[in-house]
Each structure stands twice: as C-alpha cells, then as structure tokens.
Amino acid sequence: MGEREQEIIALIEGDEETIADFKKLIETRKLERYQVSSIAFEDYGGDVMKIESCAQICSAIQLNKVITLLRDMKNGMCLAPLALK
Length: 85
What we know:
Elements: H1 16-28, H2 51-74, H3 80-84
C-alpha cells in the first residue's frame, strides 16, 4: 500500500443471502471522488462485534477524554490559552 492509499476492512455477519446482497452492492456501486484499486472478500473465523457494542465502546472512550479535559480545566491545567499566544 502506498503512502497516500488507505484500506477499509468491513466485518459483515449475516445469512448467505444478506452477505451475497452486500457483495453485489459493493461490487456494482462506484463511489464518486474515490479510486478503488481492489475489492476482496474472504471468510473470517472470529466473532464480529455488534454495532451497538462498538458504539458504546467509542462513546465511553470519548467521554473519558472529555472528563479528563474538564478535570484539568477545573484544576487550572488547561493549556488552551497558552496555545493562542
């Protein structure tokens, strides 16, 4: 993969018909403004996390960042005013 290339990996779980429909959509629908160099499908033997669980984890991570920032601001450790100088 080149310096500016990016890769998208999607873990999809479902019945055979649903997965076949997804594959067909991915192969036939072209995205504007993006160049796709290749599309590959392969079986995955691991577990696929439900989207709700992933969203909860991401929300918890973001809340942890906000709590840390607010605590630092309360304690007078906010460095934002220094960055403006």
